[in-house]
Design goal:
Distance between the termini: 24 Å
Oligomer: single chain
Structural class: mainly alpha
Radius of gyration: 18 Å
Number of helices: 5
Helix content: over 70%
Mean pLDDT: 86
Number of strands: 0
Order of helices and strands: HHHHH
Number of domains: 1
Shape: elongated
């Protein structure tokens, strides 16, 4: 039997404010970047490339804040299984920065083949990070 928990949260149980919000916003921006890259490949309308660039920009802002909050959470709570999640989140941000640099190019060559490939890789890394996070925080109800 497990001991009953106190109704008062300890410092260990308090979440870092905004951690999940910024993480989810960054994930949404990066997934939408992949969607607009595919839309550009299907239609060759330059508007979709511009949308991808803006989505990457806002995703990098939200992702940068999220990574800072993840590092603070790792330092404050010292939860070792979260280190892998933080490393994956940094890798996601690095892929997104490279993708943003590629999207700064002109037209078709900015998207095909490396732009859409990096967008897909970013999405795959986000799925891996979410699965690892779910496994690491099974006992932490707030994250």
């Amino acid at each position: 039997m497990t001991p009953a928990r106190s109704p008062y949260a300890s410092a260990y149980d308090l979440p870092i404010p905004g951690l999940t919000t910024f993480t989810y916003f960054a994930a949404a921006f990066f997934v939408l970047t992949l969607v607009t890259d595919i839309a550009y490949l299907q239609t060759t309308v330059l508007m979709w490339k511009d949308f991808s660039s803006w989505l990457l920009f806002f995703g990098l802002i939200a992702g940068g804040i999220a990574v800072l909050l993840w590092l603070i959470d790792l330092a404050v709570h010292r939860h070792r299984p979260m280190a892998g999640v933080v490393v994956l989140n940094v890798a996601i941000l690095i892929c997104a920065v490279l993708n943003s640099l590629l999207h700064a190019g002109d037209g078709w060559t900015a998207i095909l083949p490396w732009g859409v490939g990096l967008s897909a890789l970013t999405c795959l890394l986000m799925v891996a990070s979410a699965l690892l996070r779910r496994r690491a925080v099974a006992h932490r109800p707030y994250v």
